[in-house]
Amino acid sequence: MAPARGCFLRIVAISVAFACLVTLDLRPPPRVGTLRVPQPKSGFFAWFRTRRASRLRDEALRLTEQDASDEDLDRAYDLLSEAIGIYRHKLGSDHLEVAETLAQMTRLLCYQGQFGDALECIGQTMAIYDSLSKTKEGYIAHMGMILINMMDFLLEERGRVLEAEIILNRFLDLDRSRLMLEAPEDAPRWFDAAANTLRGMGRTLESLELHDCAISIVSKRMGNESWQFGACLQNKAWALADLDKNSEAFQLYEQALAILTNSLGADHIEVGTTLSNMAYLLADQGEMESAIQYMERAIAILRAYGDPMELARYLGDGGMWLELMGRVTEALGKYEEVVKILESDIGYPKGMPGAIGGRIQIARVHRRMGNTEYAKSVHSEACELASELRAGLGNHEDVVLVYIEIASDLAKQGRLDESLKMYNQSLDIVRSLDYMDPKYIWRIYIDMANARMSQEDDHYNDHVEAFELFDKALEVAASMCSSREDALATTILAKTLTEKANLLMHVDKYAEAFQCYEHARVLQESEGGLALGESLRGMALAQKQMGKFPEAADLLDQVVDVCGSEFGDDCLKGGEAYSDKAEVLLDQNQPEEAIALLNRSLQIFGANHPLKAAKAQYVIAKALDKQHKHCEAQAMYDTALDTCRSQVQAMYDTA
Question: Under the phi-then-psi rule, with left for phi > 0, alpha for psi from -120 to 50, and beta for the rest, what region is 137?
Fold first, then answer.
């Protein structure tokens, strides 16, 4: 009996074990980032029935790895289609495995350039996750992760702005409170990524709310002294700077800098990034000396720890600021280092566009220093490298950007025909591409118009053609506004109107110029900031030329208010507005009031803006002449002349 009893017990044990296998899900839950997503119970039999689909997915993934051919991609598509069919038949249409395979299919379709099918596929994926999220936690977070990853892929790997914006809008529709609850570690990064993408698309006001969500989560989880909190503050400061809220942005940058320095150390790469952002903000306000000081600190950190491409960008921008200040020898050193980094450390093809741009800058500096022949040879090298780049890459976005830069430099040399030929080649390349952001076409038209404007006044046909080019740019900008209802497209349209108004002022068509400036002002009113101030200033100058002095004075007061609210009472733009209003007051025979405003301008300009100060001194001298204070006027004329001479001498000595 004992053997029979032992056999019976073994049979029972095997039966129980088999029953457990049937009900247990033996697969580990999938992990992406820090998310652990709940898995529907499938059981052993379901796994057994779908193991072929799993192998098909693995094979499709292998086929789509590096340097996949068109045949590999087509084969991967067939494999994934078969896998989806198996999962739907064996597990049901709303199963997690179906959603994950559809997500894999979406990425493959993007690789193949079938973006319409990809969007339809991601829609099916999200529908499944949405259905699952109504009964279980975790799926909202998984939806957020897939959408953010897909958005980044479309932007960074494929440059597809419109499709990425559709994906971004799907992310924005998710329940943010559940995202914050289900993915507290990942949600801040997702919110910041979405906010930065919104900012890049011109939807900066919308981005602020997402930045605040990220700041709130990090503050509660990690505290206000953590480096993550400092990084979130920096991201928000970046958005505020884009909205021309410079004083608020700079305060946040200072707070972020202190936190990052204390938590990561003074030589950490994040500290360098913050310093560079502060430098760009100061440069936008005309504070070049301070901007260079901050940038030098950032460059020192990047030399030791940073990415060579980023270091080259910082060096190039620092060189431009030095050049603007007349410190051309220092600028030349920066440009030469840029070329060395991009050619030696990064190489072809990634570093080539920047290296060509660096050579263009080197040639420009040597022209300023009087080394004309050497400048020509460097410029010729840049053009030869551009031809090699096109031969290697074909019709590519990088080639367009290089051609635009060369064309712009040719225009500045007065070589109009060569410049326009290069611009037209850029347009041909853009039109041959499957997709390129319309703003590149807009930029080419604007640059061609400005090249026409740069010709002498007796070239009447150049002005006519410039107007035609501005009208083409306006058509592109208006089309962007109708297809993309965002602030970036509106800003581009307003900028085009302002540029056209500048040309109208140049040819003495003040009434038409005023209308263009006013249209730009209406577009910029909701955003405010520097662009609005420039439109108001243009309106004021047009009114002044038409003899409407009181109206011009009122508009310049508005410029002062706008600039003061965004940049502070003693900002550079405010100083320029005071000088403009002083000239209006002089035309109204109010020299005393004009002198008071000009003295305030001089306090703002100080030693950092000597040529602006010299102009203010010259206008003061005119005002003193009107008051019959000729001796004082002569002394002020001499002061203005000495300021100009010292600036020219400094530039000459540097050269």
Answer: beta
Please state, in angstroms and as integers, the Cα–Cα distance from residue 512 to each residue in 492, 509, 543, following that order.
20, 6, 11
Tens-place pLDDT, residues 72-98 = 888 888 888 888 888 888 888 888 788
The answer to whether the CB of 540 falls within 8 A of the CB of 514 is no
Q: What is the pTM of this model?
A: 0.67
- 159 in the Ramachandran plot: left (φ > 0), alpha (ψ -120 to 50) or beta? left
Q: pLDDT (tens digit, 9 = 90+) per residue, 522-533?
A: 887 766 666 778
Torsion angle, alpha carbons of 358, 359, 364, 365, to 10: 70
Query: HEC string of 101-168?
Result: HHHHHHHHHHHCCCHHHHHHHHHHHHHHHHHHHCCCCCHHHHHHHHHHHHHHHHHHCCCCHHHHHHHH
Asked if 211 and 239 count as a contact pair (C-beta separation under 8 A), the reply is yes
Distance CA 466, CA 453 (A): 6
Q: Give 604's Cβ-side CA count (13 Å radius).
A: 25
Query: Helices (DSSP H) in 223-287: which residue ranges?
Result: 227-242, 246-264, 269-284
- How many Cβ atoms sit within 10 Å of the Cβ of residue 248? 14
Distances (CA, A) of 518 to 243, 466, 539: 20, 21, 7
Q: How far is CA 16 from CA 10, 13, 26, 48, 612, in A?
A: 10, 5, 16, 19, 91
Say which DSSP state 468 is in.
H
SS3 186: coil
463: Cα within 13 Å, side-chain hemisphere:
14
Q: Say if residues 7 and 113 touch (Cβ distance below 8 Å).
A: no
Instruction: Name the residue among 170, 184, 176, 237 with its Cα closest to residue 210.
Output: 176
- By the 10 Å C-beta count (0-12 exposed, 13-18 middle, 19+ buried), 427 is classed as middle
Q: What are 581-638's pLDDT values in tens digits?
A: 888 888 888 888 888 888 888 888 776 677 788 888 888 888 888 888 888 889 888 8
First to last CA, the chain: 111
Tell me how far apart the alpha carbons of residues 366 and 383 are, in angstroms, rounded to a whole number: 17
Q: How far is CA 401 from CA 160, 390, 408, 538, in A?
A: 17, 11, 11, 30
Q: Considering only CA atoms, which of 149, 180, 40, 57 is closest in space to residue 96? A: 40
Helix H, strand E, coil C: the string for 408-420 is HHHHHCCCHHHHH
Name beta bridge partners: 36. Answer: 31
**Residue pointed to by tokens 């029979």:** 4
161 neighbors 437 (Cβ within 8 angstroms): yes
Residues 199, 238 contacting (CB under 8 angstroms): yes
Nearest alpha carbon to residue 123 among 148, 144, 106, 104: 106
